[in-house]
Amino acid sequence: MAACVLLIAALGACRSTPSSPTVASLSATGKVRGPAKVRVRLAEVDGARELRVLGDAGDPVTFERAGEFVRRGDGRLARDFRLAPADSDGALTLAATPYPGELWIAARPSGGLRVENRVDLEQYVAGVVAGELALWSAEPAELEAQAVAARTYAVASLLGRGPGGFLWDDVRDQVYAGRHVPDASDGGRAAARRLERALGATRGLALFVGDDLLDARYHAACGGSTARTEDVFGAATGPGSPAVDCAPCARSERDRWEWTAPAADLARAAGALDLGERLESLVPERVDAAGRWLSVRLHGPSRRRTVELTELRGLLDPERLASAGDLRTWPPPGRPITGGLHFSGRGRGHGVGLCQEGARGYARMGWDYERILSHYYPGATLETLGR
Ligand SMILES: [Zn+2]
To answer: What's the 357 CA to ligand 1 centre distance in angstroms?
Structure first.
């Protein structure tokens, strides 16, 4: 149990009520219950030596690492500090981002500080939709489909991780933008209303296969067809989704990309995989029905090794080696690599589950969010989480 330390007035009072459950659980009937609060680890400040938190009013309060403890600006030491806004609807601002709910600041075992935002599930989902999509131009059905997928992913992940489980606020889990604060323009206010309506329309809804939560993955753009969950993630956390066609992406040329991996990056990846000092050649090994590369056989001077394409993307540059869809290389597969390696492909992200680009296209064609979800997650049903 975290130490409860009185906060200074600027940040409101420390609440002495017991913590809300942060673990997704099963009811007596086996129905999945969502957690009342979600623990979100803030990546941008993870490991920072010092932090400044701004409350609803007043001066910022600083926190710094002091041995095994955290020292607050007024000199007080504690293992952790739990901060709540003075007004329960208020927000605490850290690194220019306002967060609903509480911030818990603790010493990180590997050095520096760590911060968790403990936030209501629905407020968390709103922050994910705002972080994942461009609210200004998003269609209502696109926002609603994203909200259901994000809620399902969060609860399924927390259920799988058990007590102490948390979600990262970046692509390791889902991009979470804290509280969305609209700008004062008409467009900004309209975007905020669309977000609020999408959350209201889908409140508590998640995707199930039988009694189990779906492993509801999603990605930016598939390039024309999505990938099967097992093909990309192997041991998935639950039932996944098959590969489906995606007409909006198939018609679009916008998500074609190319990138030349420099020789030095290839050498670094070869070293990390124990292949030797350079990458000599590469051949796709497993390829799905749509031509998506799933694994590649890599040859180096010391050894040969097969790795999943997701691992290779992570080792090189997952932003630039943007996807495995329609992937081509120069030199072509199997030919000696003498300098850099040129990649070209279609789509962005792992390609599994809901395609954000496609969901937008279908929403513009008049599909509602239920039809969009049943397209990308065939066989899944929409149900309200137990309470
Ligand atoms: Zn698509």
So the answer is: 6
Domain residue limits, the chain: 9-121, 142-252+351-384, 256-346
Give the Å distances, CA to CA, from 377 to 227, 357, 359: 11, 15, 12
CA of 372 to the centre of ligand 1 (A): 11
Backbone φ and ψ for 212, nearest 5 degrees, come out as -95, 145
Q: Could you tell me the two tokens for 3?
A: 């130490």
- What percentage of the chain has pLDDT greater than the value 70? 91
Give distance in angstroms: CA of 202 to centre of ligand 1. Answer: 22
Please, is 253 exposed, middle or buried when counting C-beta atoms within 10 Å of its C-beta (0-12, 13-18, 19+)?
exposed
Distance 147 CA to ligand 1 centre (A): 18
Distance in Å, CA 297 to ligand 1 centroid = 27
Distance CA(301)–CA(305), nearest Å, equals 11
Task: Give the model confidence (pLDDT) of 229-276 as tens digits.
Answer: 999 988 766 799 999 999 999 999 889 999 999 999 999 999 999 999
Please list, in sequence order, all residues whose beta carbon lies within 8 angstroms of the beta carbon of residue 28, skipping any fewer than 6 positions away. none
> Poorest-confidence range of 14-18, 128-132, 164-168, 229-233?
14-18
Q: How much distance in Å is there from the Cα of 174 to the middle of ligand 1?
A: 19
215 C-alpha vs ligand 1 centroid, how far in Å? 18
Q: How far is CA 195 from the centre of its chain?
A: 18
pLDDT digits (tens, 9 = 90+) for 316-368: 999 999 999 999 999 999 999 999 999 999 999 999 999 999 999 999 999 99
The CB density around residue 348, as the number of other CB atoms within 10 Å, is 21
Query: What does the block give as tokens for 137?
Result: 């131009």
Task: Specify the pTM.
Answer: 0.89
